[in-house]
Write a structure and sequence with these properties.
This protein is an alpha+beta fold. It has a single domain, classed as START domain (Alpha-D-Glucose-1,6-Bisphosphate, Chain A, domain 4). It has helices at residues 27-38, 127-152; strands at residues 14-23, 52-54, 61-67, 70-81, 85-90, 98-109, 112-123. It has a seven-stranded antiparallel beta sheet with strand order 1-7-6-5-4-3-2, with helices on one face. The protein is globular and about 40 Å long.
Length: 153
């Protein structure tokens, strides 16, 4: 039996995504909209509902509920400080060895609320996955913004 291995540069093992969005709503409305977007209003970039649930307390789960005790654990809530911080850690949607830290930091600014998003991760990421994550997180931020701004009217 023979085996082979391929060494991958360490740059392929780290991921660091930072995004921001301005939401024209109060910080409380924005935080609640973020929880809705991460949970029952979550959909992928093709518009398919993801059946996500979030338990918004320390140690709470963020998971995809497929029914009948089936699904995928995405993360655990590491820290929550309403309405300014939601931080989670876990494998997220990745089906390979990976660990992620996701942070949503909200602050009041002129005109509404600024959401600063950070996703830092370790794992064997391919370029296609990196691009998909950038699009996916931007899609989720846009969804949270839309929910908050609709409720603010």
């Amino acid at each position: 039996m023979s085996t082979s291995s391929t060494l991958i540069g360490t740059e392929n093992f780290t991921l660091n995504i930072t995004q921001e969005t301005l939401v024209r709503a109060t910080i409380t409305q924005t935080f609640e909209a973020l929880l809705e977007q991460l949970g029952p209003e979550n959909e992928n970039t093709e518009g398919v509902k993801m059946s996500m649930k979030i338990e918004p307390w320390p140690g709470g789960r963020w998971f995809r509920d497929l029914g009948d005790n089936n699904g995928h654990l995405w993360a655990h809530v590491q820290a929550i400080k309403r309405p300014t911080l939601l931080e989670m850690w876990g494998p997220l949607f990745m089906s390979f060895g990976a660990v992620s830290n996701v942070q949503y930091r909200l602050s009041e600014v002129d005109g509404g609320t600024l959401i600063k998003f950070h996703h830092k991760a370790l794992g064997a990421f391919e370029e296609q996955q990196r691009q998909g994550m950038n699009r996916g997180w931007a899609h989720m931020l846009a969804g949270a913004r839309a929910i908050a701004e609709r409720k603010a009217k």
